[in-house]
Amino acid sequence: MTDQSRSSLMTRRAVLGLGALGAVGVAAGGWVMLSRPSFAGQALSVSEAHKSATGGQIFLIDIRRPDEWQKTGVGEGAHPIDMRRKDFVSALDQVTGGDKAAPVALICARGVRSARMSNMLTEAGYTNIIDVPEGMLGSSAGPGWLQTGLPVRDVEG
Prior knowledge:
This is Rhodanese-like domain-containing protein. The protein is an alpha/beta fold.
């Protein structure tokens, strides 16, 4: 093997090695984005959230996307407000009457978005945000709304 072919082989290995490291970094970054952030506030099981929402003790907000509501329905007692709405806080205020101390529980599919939004709303001055970490589809926190067999309703539009 000539010095030039050894050099070329080493360069290819170096490029492949850097590419592999980059792929690992991207995969790790994606895992961080999909992992559930910590939330220091209160949490409810889906059964507790359902009972409290239908009993009028909390405002249960389903923050998923409309296409997700269409696929699974929205939990009985929940108010669907897409978390991506620019006017999310205004829509939430309409539900709660603008009371930042009102008990507001957030639910999403698997508890990742609800934990993020719980942190954001707490930072925005809401003082009684509650997470439902099981979500509609289940997570490490529990089986979720649908698998628990809790009632859902269809969402129009």
